[in-house]
Give the backbone structure.
Amino acid sequence: MLNFKILLLGFIVSSCSINHYNHDYNHDRTTTPVAPIHSRPTYSEPTYNYPRHRPPKKLAPVAPPKRSNKPIYSKPTYRIPKKRPLKKIAPSYPATRLKNNRNKPNNPRKNTSRPRYLKQPSKYLKQPSSNYVPNNPNYIARGYAAQYQLAENGIKTASGQIYDMYNMTAAHVNLPLMSNVMVKNLRTGRTIVVTINDRLYNKQKIIKLSYIAADSLNLLRNPSQLLEVRGL
Amino acid sequence: MNKIKLVILILILLSSAILNAKVITQEQFINDMVSKHNFGKLYLTKLLGKAKVKRSILKIMSRPTKKGKAKPWYKYRKTFVNAKKIKAGVKFWNNNAATLQRAEMTFGVPAKIIIAIIGVETIYGKNTGNFRVLDALTTLAFHYPRRADYFRKELENYLILTHDEGIDPLQQKGSYAGAMGIGQFMPSSFRNYAIDFDGDNKRNIWTNYADAIGSVANYFNKHGWQTGKPIITATKIRTNSIKKLLALDFAPKYTLQQLKQWGLLYFGTEPNYTNGMIIDLETKLGTAYWLGFQNYYVITRYNHSKHYAMAVYQLAEEIENAKF
C-alpha cells in the first residue's frame, strides 16, 4: 500500500511537471533564442537625447551676401505714423474697493466729470476699457483664516495699494487681485465682502483677513473658526 | 490758628476778586454792543433778560475730562462708524444726489465727506439740538469763566447774524454749546462760511438741506481743501523715533522728506514735497500710525480732534463702498 501511494504521488507530480512543461509561455524559444550574456552587445547610447547632450549642429556654410545694384544709403522704408489724439484712458482700479454695481447703467457716477481721485495712468500701459473687476463665481473653499499683524499697517501689498487695517481687504493664494469674495463665519453665520489686494504665502490657510474684516467676523479673540469663502 | 484762618480768608477773597475782575458782566457786554454795533440798549436788555441760565449746560461743560482718560479710538469709532449710520448715509446721498453733486462741482469737496460730516454731527439732520441758542450762549458767556471770552464773541456774532438774517433770536435751537443747524455751525463760522445754496436769498441751515450741504462744502473750500488729493494713509514708523515724530505740532508743517529723515516709513506714491502729519490711534491690537495730509487737517478744522477727523474719513469711505 505504501509503495502504491508513493507511486501515485510520483505519477501526479510527474504529470504536473509535464503539464507545466507543456504550458510554458516561452514557446518560441527555439525561433528567437536569447543570446548568451557574454555575447550580448555592449551598452550603447539610447536613441533619445536630451537637448543638452545633442552635439552642436553643423551649419551649412553661409554664402556671402549678394551685392545688389541699389545704393547703400536709401530712404527708410517704414512710414512715420501720424500723430493721433491720445485716447482718454480710464483708471485701472479705483483707490478703494469696488463692487460690480459700478458698471450698471443707472449709475450716476459713470459719466460724470467729477474731480479725479487717481493719478492718470501712463499712456503706454494698456488699460482695460472700464473699471474691470474679475469675477470667479465658481470658487468655494472652507478652512481657517490668517490675520494681518499690527506691524503690517502701512506696508505695500502685492497690488500696490497700501495695507490699511481699517479697509475691508484680504490676501489670497491665487484668486485674481481686486476681485471681491464673500467670507462667511460658519459658526455665527455672519458674512462680509472683502476685496483681495494681496498675496498669501501660507497654504495652510484659505485667506488672510485685515484687522477690521477679522473684527467684524469676531475672529480677533478666537481665530480658529471655520470660514467659507465664495467668489462673487 | 485764627491768624492762619484769617490769612486763608484774605487769600480767597483776593483770588475771587482777581477772577471777578476778568469776567465781563452782562451790562458791560450790552454797553459794548451798543457802542460797537449800534444795537438798541433797551432791545438788548429785554432780549438777554428773556434768556434763561441752564444748569444742565454748566454740568455738561464741567464734566471731568482728562486727556489721558479719553476714549480709545476703537471705542470712539463704534459710535460713529456703524451699519446704521452707513445705511442712513446712503439714503441721504440718494435723497440729495443733485445738490451734493453741485456742491462737489463748485467747491471741489467730495460728496462723501460732506455726508459723513453731517452724519457725525447731527445724524443726517435728525438731532440738531434742543437748547435755545440764546440760552446756551448767555449761560456760557456769563457763567462759565473758563471760556467766557470765546462764548461772548459767539454771542456777539449770534446777535448780529440774527439781525442780518431777519430771524428771531429766541426761537433758534442748537446744541448745548450753541452750534446750530444741520451742519452744527457756530455763529462766527455761520457769518463767515454759511452760504445760500438754494437761490432763495436766505441762509437757512436749520431746515434747508441744500443750504447746509453748500455751507459745509464752502467751509472746507475756504479752509484749503485740495481736490483729488489723498486725506490719510496708513504708515509705519521706526520704533526708535516714535516719540520724536509724535511730539511734532498737530498740523502738516513738515514735508515727507523731513519726516522720512526723522524715521517715517512711507510706501505710498505721494511726492516728497507734500506736507504731512503723523497720527497715532489705539486699536485692539495696539497703537497704529497714519500719515495725514492737508485734507485731513482741513477736516480737523471742523472739530479739533484726531478721532473726529478719522471717524469722518472712515464713515465717508464706508458710505461710498456701500453705495457703489
Observations:
- Strands of chain B lie at 131-132, 173-174, 232-237, 254-255, 264-265, 275-282, 287-292.
- The two ends of chain B are 77 Å apart (CA to CA).
- The mean pLDDT of chain B is 88.
- The interface with chain A takes residues 97, 101, 104-105, 108, 110, 227-228, 230, 233-236, 265-269, 283-286, 288-290, 314, 317, 320-321, 324 of chain B (CB under 8 Å).
